[in-house]
Amino acid sequence: MRYHAPLDWLNFSLADVRGGLGPYLGVFLLTRQHWDQATIGAVMTASGVIGLAIHTPVGAFIDATRFKRGIIVVGVVMLAISALAITRFPIFPVVAAANATMAIAGAIFGPAVAAITLGVLGQQGLAARLGRNAAFDHAGNVFIAVVAGFIGWWFSQSAVFYLVPVFAVVAVTAVLSIPARTIDYARARGLDTDRPDQPDRPSGWSVLVGCKPLLVFAACAALFHFANAPMLPMVGQKLALAHAGRETALMSACIIAAQAVMLPMALLVGAKADTWGRKPIFLAAFAILPVRGVLYTLSDNAFWLVGVQLLDGVGAGIFGALTPLILADLMRGTGRYNVSQGVVATAQGIGASLSNTVAGLIVVKAGYSAAFLTLAGVALVAFTVFLLGMPETGESGGNAPRAPLPGDAPVRRTTEAGQ
Questions:
Q1: Which end of the chain, N or C, is less surrounded by CB atoms within 10 Å?
Q2: Using one digit for the tens of pLDDT, what is the confidence trace for 33-47?
Q3: Is 418 a member of any domain?
Q4: What is the mean pLDDT of residues 107-133?
Q5: Is 419 domain-assigned?
Q6: What are phi and psi of 393, to 5 degrees?
Q7: Which of 13, 92, 400, 23 is nearest to 231 (CA)?
Q8: What is the pLDDT of residues 260-293, one digit of tens each?
Q9: For residue 178, what are the CA distances in angstroms to 61, 119, 170, 196?
């Protein structure tokens, strides 16, 4: 495909923009601004609440708009401004606003890039391309972690945030190098333009609650992120408290360790999702998370903690690469692909935002080990729900499930009313 390279650079640079702000914020606030864990968790929760409110509307907007490139540009610029604001005014209102901005940008980037990919490529070869998207995203995360680790060690932790505007320029250049005319906007929202027998109008909003596998998947996503979201920040906090002066470098080591595994995992998912099926691969992601939570409690040694963080690469690598593909399976022909991503992102936001506060409180009251074990228990529940409740969505699964289309008898009246 002609536009593989721009998509590669787009995913790579967006990871750099996000990575230059998010992972280092908690450590910066803890060690340089002397915030406590509960206050940091409250800031994370506030941004999560904003994410809850906007993910689904943003997904609906991305479905409807023809300016998919433009909203990526706006999100990148917002993050660049936020990063600069944190370095100049590291006070609670500014940091909270910047973190909220990061939540808004997070609601934009994933669905918009997936929509552009689907609009340019279609279903043919989508699994491989989405896996490649995820691989370049992880490569960008490794790159920014190395650069940020060096910058933070050589200069200061605040200097890391100045990297965001630099990579914002690369991201804007990459997305604008994909001509708007190459994007099939009907296909980008999930309408099946390759099959003339499929409806040429989107399903009604009832499709989101009428698709049981979507609801199960959203619930599993919420549980997964409840268990996963606080783990890296808590590991970073443990390392920062035990190794003063090397906080940024050790956080970078944790990120690099995970991302180095995520990259090949994403490529593996892209290569094998159509032949192995989606469900067996996804079960591996859910299975590794409780193991990781328990292992964090066994030692405070820096090498051990960074080594355990390698397991994050398995779970998160699979989750990131497979989620847009599973939703493309379920929403094919409905025209509600991006809003379904918003629904799942909202569920993820519920899990992640609540867990940051819960984990922070557990750390304050009972210590880090109690928090990790609690998260491991939630992860085990997530594995069980996915194993028992989620069907195979790929075509290799035989009668692969999908959401009802406008022409399907059970939902015809509802979807016509929804237009």
A1: C
A2: 667 767 777 777 777
A3: no
A4: 87
A5: no
A6: -105, -15
A7: 23
A8: 888 899 899 988 888 888 999 999 999 999 999 9
A9: 20, 11, 13, 27
